[in-house]
Amino acid sequence: MIINIQVLEEYENQVSLDLVEKAALAAFQHQNIDADTEITIVIQGNDDLQALNSEFRGVDAPTDVLAFSADEVDPDTGNRYLGDIAISYPYAQEQALNAGHAVDAELQLLAVHGVLHLLGMDHIEPADTQVMWNAQYQIMDSLGIDIRSWPLISGGH
């Protein structure tokens, strides 16, 4: 697995790249995705996510996480490139504060959520939501984080 993580400079000192990478890897392992897979995770600000949300979803508001599927093959490496995940650090920070848990744990959940979206899961229909939530619970459990008591937000996690 190759997980490229980019963090907007103003959040660099607040993000544990290792924990975000570990969460994405756990999601890949849970879903039995082969090692020749690559994604990019970009941690940015609310304005960035709002612009992306507006352009690609028609929703002119910030959000916590967006996933952009690519499913291409990198001609240089032969790796399957699944796509990009955009996470808003300020949005994640506020959600963590409101729910009473660590920002690092929130970022890990958002990375897991984004990977599951890149792998084709969604939370539009109730049955699909249950499948995705169960996968998130199991993956986060494997990281030692119990999210069952966390509030679930319909537009994000």
Total strand segments: 4
User: Strand order, biggest sheet?
Assistant: 1-2-4-3
Distance, first to last CA: 23 Å
Tell me about the largest β-sheet: 4 strands, mixed
Average pLDDT, to the nearest integer?
A: 92
- What best-fitting shape do the alpha-carbon axes yield? globular
Would you write up a description of this structure?
- It is built from 5 helices and 4 strands.
- The chain is of the alpha/beta class.
- Strands 1-2-4-3 form a 4-stranded mixed sheet, with helices on both faces.
- Strand 1 (2-7), helix 1 and strand 2 (37-44) form a beta-alpha-beta unit.
- The longest helix is centred in the C-terminal third of the chain and has 17 residues, at 126-142.
- The protein is globular and about 40 Å long.
Descriptive keywords:
single chain; 157 residues; alpha/beta; four-stranded mixed sheet
Q: How are the SSEs placed, and which strands pair?
A:
Elements: E1 2-7, H1 17-30, E2 37-44, H2 46-57, E3 65-73, E4 80-88, H3 89-99, H4 103-118, H5 126-142
Parallel strand pairs: 1-2, 2-4
Antiparallel strand pairs: 3-4
Give a quick rundown of the structure.
With 157 residues, the protein is an alpha/beta fold. Helix content is 45%, strand content 20%. The model has no long low-confidence stretch (mean pLDDT 92).
